[in-house]
Structure formats: structure tokens, C-alpha cells
């Protein structure tokens, strides 16, 4: 058999098995050594291939798509530093529990560690940031090796999406010549065999009757508790948590990425302003729950983190769907490894008991007063960073996605994105919390036709300008609300802003002084710079009626923004302290 036929059958069986396992999308960055994988994926009729030139952008593009679709997406690149450029996205995927299949081409063994060009050490190069690494064999078309390559494909797809999802890395050594021959008969293997190579059965993760009774018995000892939901992507969990909260008369502190602030489920007990409430040390001192049940990751809110650290007597229960110990506060916690929705159903059916209604009413009253003050506009036409979120939330269409950048963007969404009955998804890259790759991630989320809105700051946007090329190539629809305060606005809230006037601007403020309008023109996007809320709302709504990328730039001043936020928080604190005193 020729080398070309051997190479072709080996790679074709691998790609076919990935499709049978459930793969529908692959993101390819062009290169020579990856030719067998790239061309075979492109030839396969049932897998959509996306070409993204920049591997760093490609990694985040695949991550955003996988997060949106809640299923693994494959990445293909050539050997050398191309694979290294995936690293930031792989780190984010690992900590964010996003399923990726990272397929790197490599030099064959005889060309490693001998000074051959474009040959770096790729074995286990992502180390602990992948769930599984495997060095694939050199191509062979014997029946045992074709079974081997299908087995590895099926295992890789399953491992990426199973339990806590995450990235999987397969490294493919290829010898030249690299061109596959798609004229070989039965290219994709046995056409009659439709099932996957491995038959898999996954059972539901739930507590036993004894464990459930024990948990219910513990919870009956308390009068005041909190349900907390941090970042997570299951849009159906809101119904279950809302039902549990109303059965128990408990407030639910809902992170903006929890999928609880938006949707058709009841919001009766959802407390969306808890970050603003807990900024006050006086208020934190007066709110003392006896227990907290947390779903999802740790919330974005730093005041919440301070709150739990200041109260070591609180009994904590952390619910994880499969495994993991996400408890960054360093406090003692009981971990419950069970399907969150099933646990909620079981606890409702258990008829535990109802908790102190006055405790729930305090939280509701605090929430309502904080909400009124946060949304109040004293200068109705003054463009402020926080109220960008308010107008954005009003204009975003139903059945769409809001992708939120890090630093100030996610914190403003935490403060100003209020409960809504709109059916929408709110997601972000909160695994490693970096500012890299956010535009590419949002474009990946938009790849299958859903109009996505990205809220992002100027530094984050600048960091990933290369990502806009894929939008131009595929005419993806993305509305970018670009909040430009000419630098790192979040640092103005940190101690560095007060302690070091000499170095602050250079090291932390980092002004860009860039006219983004000229950059957007390179990628054939539409650009607007509204001067009033009416203009902002008009161009925002118009963007949802057109395809392609629309950039809406809101220009603000970092110093004014800092003062505006602090004034809002002071007003909230003053009002809530007076309420708690009974004034």
C-alpha cells in the first residue's frame, strides 16, 4: 500500500469517528504539517470547517462556539509555535470547563530534537491544563491501527465533554508526503456502520436516599439561609432553583453569569443587587445567614467574597455537578457532588421546611431600594459606563446572547443588569478571567447564526483585534458595545490609583489613544459613536436588523467614571443603612 493511501485511511477514519461521536465543527489554522487533518476535515461532508489564520484567535473562537453550543469543538494547527498560541484559550477552557479537542500536527520522531525547523517539544505541552493527552501513532492502515485511531477519536470526544468538560490534546506526527488521496474507495470506512466505536452509558449523578435525608436533617436546624448561584451555563437550572427558593422562602443571590437573572422562570426571590448591597461593611455586619447553598462557580462579586470570609460560622454547602473543589474563600465547606437540577427537585420533594419569611423580606427590601438608586439618572443624557448596561439590557433581543468582557465590563453587568423575563444567555470567560480573546470568543458564539452582543472595554478590544478577520470572512453578526475610557478603568478603583501618581498612568492606566473608527474599516464593519442615550438605543436596535459586525463606541472619562460609581455606591449604602436602622 502507498504512503498516501495509508495516511488518508488513517486520518479519514479518525475524522469519521469524531463525527459519529457528535463533532460538527472544527476550527483550522492553515499550515503545512497539518495538511492531512485540515484537508480531510474540509473534505468531510458533515463537519463544518472554519478557517482562522491566527491560532490565538482560533483557540478562543472555538472556545466561544463550544460554550454557546455546549458541546466539543475541534482545533487543528500545524507544528511549532502555532500550537503554543493555543495556550491562553486552553487555560481558559480548562478553568471554565469548556470542551475542546486540540489536534496538533507534529514532526515525526526522527525530526525531533535534532534542529529541524518548526519542531518544538509538543508532547504533553499543555501539561495539567488538559484532561487527557495522547501522542498518536504514526499513520498505519492495518485493521488494528484503524480500530486504534477510531478508539482514540471516540475517547477524546467523550472525555472533552464528560463530567467537568475541558480540553483534550491529541498530537499527530506525520511524515511527508502530506497530501491525502480522497479517491481511495470506502474513504470513510464502513459506511453501513453508523454507531460510534465505543458504546457509552452515563448514569445520572444524584444523592442516595440516606444522603438526602441526612442533608435535609442538617438544614432543618437553621432558620436563615441563602441560595447562591455563581457562573454556570445551564439555562434550565433557573426553574429548579427558583422553585426550591420559593418552597423554602429563601433569597437567591444570582451572579450575572448564573443564567438566573434572565428567562421565563420566577424572579420572586432572585436578588440581583447583592453586590451593591454587600459593598457596605455596616450592612454585611447586620446580615448573618446560618447556611449558604452555592450552585455554580464562585460569584464575580468581591463584596460577596468578603462577606463569607467575615462570617466563619456560616455552614457552606457547595454543589458540583461531578467533582471539583471550587472554594477560593478558604473556608470550610461541605461538597455535594450531584446534578444541580436533580438535587433541587429532590430537596423540594423532601419537604424540608420553610425558613424565616422576615429574613427573605429584608433581602427583598434591600434589593428593591438598591435597584432604584442604581438605575436613577440625574443627568439623563450623560453617557455613563454603568448605565450602558441598563440601556443595553433593554435593547438586546430575546433568544440572543450577551457576551461580557472582563475587568469593568463584568462588574458593571453585575451591578446594573437587572432581572428580566427576556429569554437570553449571559456568558463570559471567567475561567482564568483574562482580557485576551474575548472578541474571538463572542464571534465563536455567533458562528451558528445567533446575533451576539459583546460588551467590552478598549484594552480588551485592542488585545484581540485580529479576531475580527473571521467575522469578515464568514459575515458573522456581532454587535460590539465598546466602552472606551482610554485605558484600564478598573485600576482606578484599586489602591494603586491613590498610592502612586508617578507611575500609575504608565503601568496601570495605560492609555491607548487609538481612533478605533479607522481600525474597524479594515474589517468592513459598521461604526457608530452615539452622543446620547437616544442615539445609543437607536443604533443598538438597528444593529440587530443587519448582518456583519457593528461597533458602537461609548467614550467616557476614567476619573469621572470612578467618581460616578463611588457616588452611586455611597447613595446605596446611606439608604440601606437608614433602612436597617428603621429611620
From TrEMBL:
Q: Which InterPro entries match?
A: DHS-like_NAD/FAD-binding_dom, MenaQ_synth_MenD, MenD_middle, THDP-binding, Thiamin_PyroP_enz_TPP-bd_dom, TPP_enzyme_TPP-bd
**Claim: Secreted is one of the keywords in the record:** no
* Cofactor detail note: Binds 1 thiamine pyrophosphate per subunit.
| Record pathway | Quinol/quinone metabolism; 1,4-dihydroxy-2-naphthoate biosynthesis; 1,4-dihydroxy-2-naphthoate from chorismate: step 2/7; Quinol/quinone metabolism; menaquinone biosynthesis
The UniProt catalytic activity note for this protein reads: isochorismate + 2-oxoglutarate + H(+) = 5-enolpyruvoyl-6-hydroxy-2-succinyl-cyclohex-3-ene-1-carboxylate + CO2
Reading the lineage from the top rank, the first entry is Bacteria
* Obligatory cofactor(s): thiamine diphosphate; Mg(2+); Mn(2+)
What EC number(s) does its UniProt record assign? 2.2.1.9
| Residue intervals of the Menaquinone biosynthesis protein MenD middle domain | 222-404
Record-annotated Thiamine pyrophosphate enzyme TPP-binding domain positions: 439-554
The annotated subunit structure for this chain is: Homodimer.
What does this protein's UniProt record list under function?
Catalyzes the thiamine diphosphate-dependent decarboxylation of 2-oxoglutarate and the subsequent addition of the resulting succinic semialdehyde-thiamine pyrophosphate anion to isochorismate to yield 2-succinyl-5-enolpyruvyl-6-hydroxy-3-cyclohexene-1-carboxylate (SEPHCHC).
PANTHER family named among the record's database cross-references: 2-SUCCINYL-5-ENOLPYRUVYL-6-HYDROXY-3-CYCLOHEXENE-1-CARBOXYLATE SYNTHASE, PROTEIN PHYLLO, CHLOROPLASTIC
The name this protein carries in UniProt is 2-succinyl-5-enolpyruvyl-6-hydroxy-3-cyclohexene-1-carboxylate synthase
User: Can you name the source organism?
Assistant: Aquibacillus albus
Amino acid at each position: 500500500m502507498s504512503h498516501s493511501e495509508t495516511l488518508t485511511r488513517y486520518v479519514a477514519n479518525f475524522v469519521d469517528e469524531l463525527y459519529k461521536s457528535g463533532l460538527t465543527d472544527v476550527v483550522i489554522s492553515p499550515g503545512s504539517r497539518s495538511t492531512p487533518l485540515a484537508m480531510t476535515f474540509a473534505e468531510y461532508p458533515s463537519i463544518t470547517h472554519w478557517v482562522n489564520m491566527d491560532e490565538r484567535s482560533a483557540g478562543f473562537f472555538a472556545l466561544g462556539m463550544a460554550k454557546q453550543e455546549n458541546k466539543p469543538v475541534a482545533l487543528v494547527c500545524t507544528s511549532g509555535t502555532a500550537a503554543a498560541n493555543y495556550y491562553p484559550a486552553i487555560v481558559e477552557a480548562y478553568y471554565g470547563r469548556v470542551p475542546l479537542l486540540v489536534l496538533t500536527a507534529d514532526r515525526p520522531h526522527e525530526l525531533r530534537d535534532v534542529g529541524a525547523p518548526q519542531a518544538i517539544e509538543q508532547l504533553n505541552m499543555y501539561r495539567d491544563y488538559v484532561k487527557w493527552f495522547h501522542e498518536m501513532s504514526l499513520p498505519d492502515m492495518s485493521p488494528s491501527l484503524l480500530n486504534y485511531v477510531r478508539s482514540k477519536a471516540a475517547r477524546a470526544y467523550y472525555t472533552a465533554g464528560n463530567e467537568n468538560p475541558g480540553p483534550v490534546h491529541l498530537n499527530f506526527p506525520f511524515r511527508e508526503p502530506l497530501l491525502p488521496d480522497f479517491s481511495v474507495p470506502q474513504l470513510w470506512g464502513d459506511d453501513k456502520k453508523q454507531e460510534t466505536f465505543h458504546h457509552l452509558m452515563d448514569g445520572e449523578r444524584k444523592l442516595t436516599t440516606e444522603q438526602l435525608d441526612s442533608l435535609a436533617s442538617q438544614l432543618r436546624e437553621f432558620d436563615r439561609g441563602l441560595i447562591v448561584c455563581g457562573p454556570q451555563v445551564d439555562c434550565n437550572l433557573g426553574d429548579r432553583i427558583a422553585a426550591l427558593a420559593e418552597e423554602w422562602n429563601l433569597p437567591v443571590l444570582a451572579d450575572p453569569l448564573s443564567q438566573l437573572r434572565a428567562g421565563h422562570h420566577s424572579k420572586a426571590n432572585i436578588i440581583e443587587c447583592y453586590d451593591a448591597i454587600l459593598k457596605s461593611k455596616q450592612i454585611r455586619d447586620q446580615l448573618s445567614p446560618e447556611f449558604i447553598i452555592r450552585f455554580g462557580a464562585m460569584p464575580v462579586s468581591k463584596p460577596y467574597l468578603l462577606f463569607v470570609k467575615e462570617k466563619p460560622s456560616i455552614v457552606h454547602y457547595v454543589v458540583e455537578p461531578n467533582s471539583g473543589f471550587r472554594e477560593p474563600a478558604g473556608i470550610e465547606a461541605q461538597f455535594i457532588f450531584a446534578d444541580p437540577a436533580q438535587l433541587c427537585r429532590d430537596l423540594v420533594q423532601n419537604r424540608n421546611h420553610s425558613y424565616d419569611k422576615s429574613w427573605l423580606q429584608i433581602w427583598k427590601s434591600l434589593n428593591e431600594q438598591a435597584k432604584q438608586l442604581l438605575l436613577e439618572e440625574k443627568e439623563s443624557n450623560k453617557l455613563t459606563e454603568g448605565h450602558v448596561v441598563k440601556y443595553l439590557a433593554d435593547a438586546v433581543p430575546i433568544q440572543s446572547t450577551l457576551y461580557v468582557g472582563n475587568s469593568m465590563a463584568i462588574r458593571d453587568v453585575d451591578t446594573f443588569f437587572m432581572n428580566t423575563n427576556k429569554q437570553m444567555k449571559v456568558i463570559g470567560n471567567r475561567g482564568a478571567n483574562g482580557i485576551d480573546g474575548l472578541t474571538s470568543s463572542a464571534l465563536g458564539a455567533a458562528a451558528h447564526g445567533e446575533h451576539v452582543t459583546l460588551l467590552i472595554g478598549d484594552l480588551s478590544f485592542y488585545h484581540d483585534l485580529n479576531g475580527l478577520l473571521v467575522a469578515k470572512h464568514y459575515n458573522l453578526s456581532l454587535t460590539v458595545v465598546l466602552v472606551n475610557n482610554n485605558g484600564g478603568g478598573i485600576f482606578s478603583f484599586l489602591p494603586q490609583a491613590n498610592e502612586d501618581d508617578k507611575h500609575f498612568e504608565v503601568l496601570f492606566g495605560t492609555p491607548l489613544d487609538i481612533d478605533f473608527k479607522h481600525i474597524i474599516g479594515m474589517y468592513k464593519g459598521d461604526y457608530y459613536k452615539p452622543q446620547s442615550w437616544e442615539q445609543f438605543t437607536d443604533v443598538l436596535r438597528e444593529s440587530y436588523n443587519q448582518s456583519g459586525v457593528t461597533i458602537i463606541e461609548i467614550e467616557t472619562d476614567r476619573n469621572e467614571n470612578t467618581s460616578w460609581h463611588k457616588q452611586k455606591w455611597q447613595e446605596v449604602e446611606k439608604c440601606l443603612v437608614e433602612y436597617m436602622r428603621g429611620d
